[in-house]
Give the backbone structure.
Amino acid sequence: MAAFIPPETAVKTREEISKSNLRGALHWRYFRRDWFKFVFGIFLPLILFMIFIGYPMLNTIYLSLFDWNGITKTMKFIGLQNYIQLIHDPHLSLSLTNNLLWFVLTLIFPLMGGLVLGAILSSGRIYFTKVLMVLLLLPITFSMVTIGTMFGLITNPVFGALNQVLASIGLGFIHPDWLGPNLAIYTLIAVSSWSGLGMTTLMFNAAMGQVPDELYETAKMEGARAYQTFWYVTLPSIRPIIGIVTVLVAIGSLRAFDLVFVMTRGGPFRRTTVLGYMLFDEAFTKYHFGYGAAIGTVILLFAAVLMYFYIRQNVLTANN
Amino acid sequence: MKRNLSLPLVVLLLCSLLLGACSPNAATTAVPTAASTSETNTQPTDTGQPVAANTLVPTSWVPVPYSGGVKIQLFMRLSAPGAMWPTIVDGFNKANAGKIYATLTYTDDTTYITKLPIVLRSDTPPDVFFSWMGGRAKMLVAAGYAEPLDRYYTQFGWNTLLTTAAIGIANNDGVNGHIYEAPYYMSASAVWYRSDILKKYNLSVPTTWDELQNVCQTLKDNKIYCWMISNKDGWEAQFDWTGIFVQKYGLQAYKDLINRKIPFTDPRVVDAFQVLKDFADKYAYPNPNSVALMDGSIPFAQGTVAFWYQGSWMPGLFGYTGGTFEYDFMPFPTFPGITPTQELWAEETLMVNANSTHKDEAAQFIDYVLSQPVQTIMAQNNQFPSNKNVDLSVMNNPSLVKLGQVMAATGAATYVHPDIALNDAVSSEFLNDIQAVLAGAMTPAQAGAASEANAVKEAGPVVP
């Protein structure tokens, strides 16, 4: 019988987890000893997961095989027709492009920005580090609906503060149409980036704090400049966190909906439509519930792939 | 070194917070204050249509307690008259104490659209529910949720109680000769204009499209935008498009389009796109697709825009600006050789759930809503009643009283803009295409083709 392995050593290797620890943990003796953990830590969450996430997920996949307007009592089985229609839907490519753009740009700003800010904050070269961190983290406490409403007012073409600020510094002639067809998607991404910057900064800052001082001291003794230290010491040390943040940003870009809903409703003329909004529009505006479910299933597949990389990265990080 | 890095960071963060903090103030300070012809203060719904603030559902509302009898459930949309539902429900419950007891559930527009299918399929569906007329109403009928109301029209005398227009609308939305809806709140479109601006520049109220162009040119020469097109939410500019199409090509052509007798690629449809685009480029307030209905009210209140073609709810919106300015309305300008038509529709209707076990009691509730006392309360809150016996002089806005007279003179049901006339799957693409044309991202011909392709997919090919 395998002995109980304390949590701090339980992630040594995947082989150990699968072969000894799990088998042993599922044994009745361990269940009796740790019944509280099993019931409230495994079974209850699993049941809740199945009710609130598993069932709706399976039901969505099931619905995607039907032609249904969400109102009638009967549904017409059409097999994979919704998926075939989806592949030929020009709005799908537009939405995917926007999701991809969202991902790439949020990689650049919150990820790069977080990296730079994290490095600055952990450099010990500035005052008020904690105050700055609190200010950076403030947007995380706002709901995306609040943020969307706030930036909707800021970017408003009639009375928005942003254009008024531009005008006050002599740039009134630019008067950008922030939510117009050419800029709207970038405005949304910028707002999303602003709201996510604090979290990435926090994660990078925490990761940088874990880099052993000896490495920095050695680099200093070797005569490395600040950027060289950052490039050759800091970055390699926090690479696993960069991987995790990248996957999280990708998942976040796939989930983009709330800002779109609040600020543009996918418009003008679908220029800011993303997969999440396309689902909403098809299911709840056009009453194409089956088709909406097919879009939801596609999102689910994308999310599953990303989650695989996220979990893989997490395991790698833990092993490292 | 430390200061060099911290100072820009602090400044950047403070600037970003400051931007967030100062924006709403900019909206409120930008509006002038002068004497208003409208006394109703309003708040926007999520579709931008205003809700009268003095009629909003009070959060402290305590319904009349249940005192026995049949219980019926109501599912309503929180719109302008919908905000009076607590008063109406309390009145009904008091009048029917011990016999019928109505419980009210209400929701905003967006939630209503998403929630209605779920509510109707639930184990405890509502007995009476709100429905828009037109495409959505027909969908509910087709799904089997709407009870035919013919016998109640006869039993309660709604045929003689309601205006000709309301009856006509209910008949138009009927299926196989049956009526399924009871219109209780009517609307009309009108060109709202700043009468003080026209006076200032000695301009007459334009009655024809050509006269409008001349007026607009004069205003443009005086640095005033002639026309407001606020189309951020996508539904607003359809008023302008429909106005142009109906007045230029006639009511029958529009009915043919809605009834799929002519396609969206018809040259007349394409031309209406073109006329709208040309006019908007020349005379409309800039960036129409970024300006929401509420936003548009600010330049209108400030006097930087003179005309605005929208629904009869606009005086409520003008009141929301806190502005006091002179305004009036006129019909949409006419085109040569075509008889002008006033747009007139039922903004809200009620349906009885076909699955209700208390249909007669549900119909009694509708009869109460259509009764003269309740409809008079609606009129007092500047909503147009469907009961023809209501004295419209109780409305506290002279423009609305006048518009009510125009509506009465119009008589029969005429037409309604596409997002109500058609089902959402067809109209939403059309509304997107209007936005694309206004932005110059599509030519009128491309917009017509895109709308038609979607209409074929959703509603089938045209049958001339």
Q: What stands out?
A: Residues 2-29 of chain B form the longest helix (28 residues). The mean pLDDT of chain B is 86.
